[in-house]
Amino acid sequence: MISAIGSAFPRIQTSPLQGASTAGVGAATTVAGADFGTVLSQVATNAMDAVKSAEATSIQGIRGDASTQAVVESVMAAERTLQTAVALRDKAVSAYLELSRMSI
């Protein structure tokens, strides 16, 4: 799942700071054209693809078309994907609850 999340994020471009000396100063990073909703959508799509792939491999394993190792690897990848999705959901719910407790 980590590779799926990493592939969902857009490329990060670096450019030197404008109007500042670059000696001893790192490059400023900017994300080109990425918004949070798009990134989450891509992560969700990659997660669904991993689960569907695990299901297909499991069915192939039952039929005898896939090796036991391939079935176990795909099921473990799907399990990691599901655990990551649950962790992201828990963090989002926790953040929402924290925001709802703030006084205006």
TrEMBL record:
From the Swiss-Prot or TrEMBL record, what is one GO molecular function term?
cytoskeletal motor activity
Ranges in coiled-coil conformation: none
Query: Which residue windows are transmembrane per the record?
Result: none
Cell compartment(s), UniProt: Bacterial flagellum basal body
Keyword line? Bacterial flagellum, Cell projection, Cilium, Flagellum
Q: List the GO terms this entry assigns under cellular component, sorted alphabetically.
A: bacterial-type flagellum basal body
Entry-linked InterPro entries: FliE
A Gene Ontology biological process noted in the UniProt record is:
bacterial-type flagellum-dependent cell motility
Tell me which family the UniProt entry assigns to this protein.
Answer: Belongs to the FliE family.
This chain's protein is named: Flagellar hook-basal body complex protein FliE
User: What is the organism field in this record?
Assistant: Aurantimonas aggregata
